[in-house]
Amino acid sequence: MSLPPWCPTYSSRKTGVNGEKVYCICKRPDNGELMVGCDGCDDWFHFSCLKIPETYRRLVYSFHCPYCEAGITGPASQGANELPKTIWKRKCRLNDCFKPCQTNSKYCSDEHGEEYMRIMLAKVEIPGMSHDAQLQLFKDMANYHNDDSKPEQFQKFGNEEFIYDDPKDQDSLYTKIVSEDKRLIELQDNARELSDNTIPTKKSELDTLSKYLDWLEEINVKLASQKDPNLGEDATNSSSTTTRDKNKKKLNKIKAKQRIYICGYSSDCQIPCSVDEFVAEYGQELPQLKNICVKVRCSKHSGWAIMQLEEREQQLSSLESYQTRLLLLMKMRKEQLHIQYYEQLLQKKE
């Protein structure tokens, strides 16, 4: 996918001429203008630069910038199979309202739902019938029932369960239109693969890395305390922490403390032995121990822990964002197919 004509070529520049941080496609600093954050690359973009009306500010559900949508940055640039798309919340049906709809509704509030219906009813004209008589007719239709139908059956048309739930008795027409739809099957397969394999695998990788860094930090604390006993007083206590909630603290420790005594780089981040065993075998003349780099202030692997943690966090965040988008696309596709099914079902009965 190519960039829009109004979008400049991607630039990775993050600072301006005066050293201030710059954002967006315009590469200008934050001046208080309305901005939106990209879920793919984490950069911020001005609504005006993206040609998005400010009235849409409450309707953004999952935003991806032009560069992520083109595969230059974000999930696709890291190997994701599908280019991301910006997802918008459904707008209230009232024309001049730009608030998102409430759950299981087409309106932002009950008041706007009533206002919309008043506007629609005002446009209906039945020859030879007064406006009040027309309103009464609509009320009678909503409450009409006989032996074969009830008001609840009429009133549920358009509700979530009517649009999305599979009918109890699925006929051949339903199978042909809905169950065998190739696009719906593809979305369901992708969502299943994501939830059953891809995301759990990525979480496992992140958990393995986190446990390895906990182990490595204990080693560095012990090695540092051997050199200066006062350094051992701030020993880590993160062995019982959860993976994702504590990674930020771990990153801050690595960035701020400058306490890493050995490099600790490992290609697979597997813990080879206990902390005490590793410390006992350690010697400063060794470049590696148990396939782990033990150089002091290693320039070759500088910053590897920070980069790997941030990379895995970003990958997991992108996958979860993609999962949310897939579920929304499945819901929208099923809605379209159900409408087709019920329309053709009515045509067959006529």
TrEMBL record:
Domain of life the protein comes from: Eukaryota
Gene Ontology MF term list: zinc ion binding
Organism per entry: Zygosaccharomyces mellis
Name the record gives this protein: PHD-type domain-containing protein
Domain PHD-type: 21-71
Protein's cellular compartments: Nucleus
UniProt-listed SMART domains: PHD
CC per GO annotation: Set1C/COMPASS complex
GO biological process: positive regulation of DNA-templated transcription
Pfam families cross-referenced by the UniProt entry: PHD
Chief localisation class: nucleus
Annotated region described as Disordered, given as residue ranges: 227-250
Sorted UniProt keywords: Metal-binding, Nucleus, Zinc, Zinc-finger
